[in-house]
Amino acid sequence: MEEHFSELFKESGIFANREVLSPHYIPQHLLFRDKQIADIEKAVTPSLRGERGRNLFIYGKTGAGKTSCMKWVMDRIREIPVIRAKITYVNCRIYNSRYRVLGKIASDHMPIYAKRGFGVTDIYEKMINWIEEDGKILIAVLDEIDMIRDLDDLIYTLARANSDMKSGGITMIGISNKVSFKDVLDPRSLSTLYENELVFPPYNSVELASILKDRAASGFKKGVIEDESLNLAAAIAAREGGDARFALKIISKAGELAEERGSKAIGTEEIQEASKFAEEDIAYEIINTLPDHQRLVLYAIAIMSTHGSRYKRLDQGDESFLLSGDIFSRYSSLAESLGKEPKSSRLYRKYIADLEMQGIITAYESGKGIRGHTRMIKLSYNPSRVKEVVEKGLFKEGEVEGYIKPS
pLDDT category, 245, cuts 50, 70, 90? Predict the structure, then answer.
């Protein structure tokens, strides 16, 4: 038995510290983000003094360092011996409703009230009393805030809480990849906001190369990876939008490939191959952040793609495509089978445009001859894998089998 597991405990010839290469690792110094960190610190300073500060909304593409900078600041806040604020970090991909967010706040600071059985009103009143008892400020950091299903209700509840309290208050810090996420808010919710905004620019290839070299110095064994390979990974990530997480995934996966092959170094071949794996990982992460109906559209495309397409473009060889109108019909049927009202054709076209922009699908104009003039669509990734990702992230247990699993 020991022989079977001996390879698992064998010292790596490639990695020195894998954790350092993780996108979730927070280094002591975040390169090229001094200004953004200073802006966050400036924004939260009134709250730390016990004053009602302005809410802050942080925007930027995936991998721009938003969450890392916020967590870095939070770690420094926790080192302050005496402050008049309490802080809660909420991953809104997990805590994706008003009830769950309020429950997370209760769990962090009022665990006696975090048990099941308390409704939104009960938790809200307990939270108000807890804040008022000594006039503290609650800083609620809402990461991926656009993932909250009843966002209007949450923002209105937290913002209006300041009006209900005689002392103390709540400061919201929302983090989102989508600058336009507030466009969907009700005017009632928007009117309660009093916020600053901070936009994180994407990293360029030079910055990404420096970040990778900094991480590689302690993440890999000495001499394992040369600047040529790191620069290539940085260039690929810069071309894909300046995503530092993508860049880190590339070199980490490249290290795994080199180790599997018994190589003592990571070359450009491993970097090129690893970038394809990393691109798929990022795509599947993006899928999980899409709105429910957009994921249903993608699910319809995945289902239809697994059954094969009936239409081919002569100038694209054997590649097969789906017709946009057929996808819309399938999406509408899926939505109705789940008790959801299908969105309009106008919104459907927007969903398709967004999926194309993010590289998840490819779309072409059909030209004349195929049901008039329509769009021909092809999934960019493995249909079965996309279907599996959507099912896991969108449907409750039993829904797929009971309602919409294709025959």
Answer: very high
Q: What is the DSSP letter of 181?
A: G
Q: What is the CATH number of domain 34-200?
A: 3.40.50.300
pLDDT, position 8: 57
Determine the 3-state secondary structure of 332 from DSSP.
helix
- Burial level of 263, CB count in 10 A (0-12/13-18/19+)? middle
DSSP 344: P
The CATH number of the structural domain formed by 290-404 is: 1.10.10.10
Strand partners, 323: 376
Cβ neighbours around 206 below 10 Å, total: 13
| Mean residue pLDDT across the chain | 86
Domain ranges of the chain: 34-200, 203-287, 290-404
pLDDT at residue 314 in the model: 39
Q: What is the mean pLDDT of residues 191-215?
A: 91
* Mean pLDDT within 280-292: 83
Phi, psi of 41 (to 5 degrees): -60, -40
Which tokens is 333 given? 């049927």
CB burial readout 25-60, b (16+ within 10 A) else e: eeeeebbbbeebbebbeebbebbbebeebebbbbbb
If you search the block for the tokens 């770690």, which residue do you land on? 75
Indicate the pTM of the whole model.
Answer: 0.78
How far apart are alpha carbons 391 and 288 in whole angstroms?
A: 10
- Is the C-alpha dihedral spanning 163, 165, 169, 174 positive or negative? negative
Residue linked to tokens 């397409």:
309
Say which CATH class 203-287 falls into.
mainly alpha
Please choose, from the candidates 262, 250, 265, 260, the residue with its C-alpha nearest in 3D space to the C-alpha of residue 220.
265
pLDDT at 318: 46
The vertex-164 CA angle with 162 and 168, nearest 5°, equals 50
Predicted confidence (pLDDT) per residue in 314-337, tens digit:
344 445 789 999 999 999 999 999
